């Protein structure tokens, strides 16, 4: 029994050591930073038809970095996650069409304002709603954490509407178009760009934005002063020599197809597959990699918990029960945010998104695995243990030679089911910026507004992979029980 426990502990600990090693900063001749962004916020931050991150924000950042002699790694994620990543020191800065407000100044230090914007609101094209007063008793869709959401919240009681929240702009637009909600609020240039690119909305105040304000590049308050100074210095230079105006005009004046692709690329399933094949393939590879690593390590961790759960030691049984109870009862997204955003502020070091994602899978999926492993061992007839002990085997040897082999055979259907669940659960990790298959779909939809076709393709890819995994698992089950 001790050998089994030590083997399992060593395997799980090995991954943790690799994760810790991965967070050590690499030595480089130039300053290097991690910059968080929301890549679903065209024309400021989005992915073009070549799967490159572009937009007003991205071009400004790239130009300044080149001129000021620093490098950076871009981390696309939801807006809320991006700001929290900076606040928890997981990222060094954030550029995501972020409005400068007094509340945010309590948490972040902002650069020189780089864009003047305001809030707009939009309805479906054929909507009868023409004024804010018409929203009374109805529901509006908001992107969580944005200036548009804050403005809508500030006037909610005055105009008597209800609110529902989404994590990205395109989903809130789709909700309005589909009639589930009647309007959405957001930064006016973002709404106008979406309409220009084929989103079937009507902007109600195209020339009269609410709450005009400024966008800024942000770092955690009191941190990364050198990065902030470099951004301000570089921005002053590109503003003076006209580069800034060229960047803004490049996106605001461009034809829709310049960044999104031709109609042939976006108006059919085959066109979307052809023009985005590399993006789908990259997302699928990341999903499979997460799944394979997660399955192996979560299985090892679950076996450890299961063995502990049938140990002679009351302490080990109690520890196993407690761990399973905690991580099986915790929502996976909450656990992912806790590890990626909450934990670094306590331990004082960055945790890579992939490491945080795998740790989330290990703890969550491992808890479920541990529960059915423990149940599988307990389901072996008690007479088996009694017979083994009567033959002179110790408790540990009886477990290894008799109980565990029989229990594992009983658990194979449960393992197959857990493998499939792990594959599907990797989609949740898109919330912390891992570019797996679901996040890939979100970025493509942001660019081409073809939600139905893109999500149909994503669903079909998942279904094919799950079918193949099920066939493989069933083959393994037959081989082990033959």
TrEMBL record:
The lineage of its organism: Bacteria, Bacillati, Bacillota, Bacilli, Lactobacillales. CDD domains: TM_PBP2. It is found in: Cell membrane. Pfam families: BPD_transp_1, SBP_bac_3. Gene3D superfamilies: MetI-like, Periplasmic binding protein-like II. One of its GO terms (biological process) is amino acid transport. Belongs to the binding-protein-dependent transport system permease family. InterPro entries: AA_ABC_transptr_permease_3TM, ArtM/GltK/GlnP/TcyL/YhdX-like, Iontro_rcpt_C, MetI-like, MetI-like_sf, Solute-binding_3/MltF_N. It is a multi-pass membrane protein. SMART domains: PBPb, PBPe. Residues 1-28 form the signal peptide. It comes from Fructobacillus pseudoficulneus. This is Glutamine-binding protein/glutamine transport system permease. One of its GO terms (cellular component) is ATP-binding cassette (ABC) transporter complex. Residues 284-473 form the ABC transmembrane type-1 domain.
């Amino acid at each position: 029994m001790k050998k089994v426990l030590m083997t399992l502990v060593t395997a799980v600990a090995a991954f943790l050591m690799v994760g810790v090693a991965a967070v050590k900063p690499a030595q480089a001749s130039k300053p290097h930073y991690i910059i968080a962004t929301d890549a679903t916020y065209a024309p400021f931050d989005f992915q073009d038809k070549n799967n490159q991150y572009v937009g007003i924000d991205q071009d400004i950042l790239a130009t300044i970095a080149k001129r000021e002699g620093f490098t950076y790694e871009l981390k696309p994620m939801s807006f809320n996650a991006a700001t929290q990543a900076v606040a928890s020191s997981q990222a060094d800065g954030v550029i995501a069409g972020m409005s400068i407000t007094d509340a945010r100044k309590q948490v972040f230090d902002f650069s020189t304002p780089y864009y003047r914007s305001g809030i707009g609101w939009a309805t479906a094209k054929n909507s009868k709603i023409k004024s804010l007063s018409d929203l009374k008793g109805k529901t509006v869709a908001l992107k969580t954490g944005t200036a548009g959401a804050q403005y809508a919240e500030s006037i909610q009681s005055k105009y008597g509407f209800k609110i529902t929240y989404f994590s990205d702009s395109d989903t809130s637009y789709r909700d309005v178009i589909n009639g589930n909600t009647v309007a959405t609020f957001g930064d006016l240039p973002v709404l106008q760009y979406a309409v220009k690119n084929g989103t079937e909305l009507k902007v109600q105040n195209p020339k009269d934005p609410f709450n005009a304000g400024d966008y800024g590049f942000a770092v955690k308050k009191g941190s990364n002063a050198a990065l902030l100074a470099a951004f301000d210095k570089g921005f002053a230079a590109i503003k003076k020599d006209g580069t800034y105006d060229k960047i803004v005009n490049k996106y605001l004046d461009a034809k829709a197809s310049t960044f999104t692709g031709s109609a042939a690329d976006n108006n059919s399933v085959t066109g979307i597959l052809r023009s985005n094949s590399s993006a789908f393939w990259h997302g699928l590879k990341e999903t499979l990699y997460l799944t394979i690593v997660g399955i192996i390590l979560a299985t090892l961790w679950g076996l450890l918990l299961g063995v502990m759960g049938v140990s002679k030691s009351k302490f080990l049984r109690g520890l196993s029960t407690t761990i399973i109870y905690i991580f099986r009862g915790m929502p996976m997204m909450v656990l992912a945010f806790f590890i990626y955003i909450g934990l670094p502020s306590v331990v004082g070091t960055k945790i890579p998104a992939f490491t945080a994602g795998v740790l989330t899978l290990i703890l969550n999926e491992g808890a479920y695995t541990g529960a059915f492993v423990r149940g599988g061992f307990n389901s072996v007839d008690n007479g088996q243990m009694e017979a083994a002990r009567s033959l002179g085997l110790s408790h540990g040897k009886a477990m290894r030679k008799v109980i565990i082999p029989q229990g594992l055979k009983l658990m194979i259907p449960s393992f197959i089911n857990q493998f499939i669940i792990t594959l599907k659960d990797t989609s949740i990790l898109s919330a912390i910026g891992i570019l797996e298959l679901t996040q890939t779909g979100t970025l493509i939809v942001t660019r081409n507004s073809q939600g139905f076709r893109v999500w149909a393709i994503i669903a079909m890819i998942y279904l094919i992979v799950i079918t193949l995994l099920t066939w493989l698992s069933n083959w393994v089950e037959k081989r082990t029980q033959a």
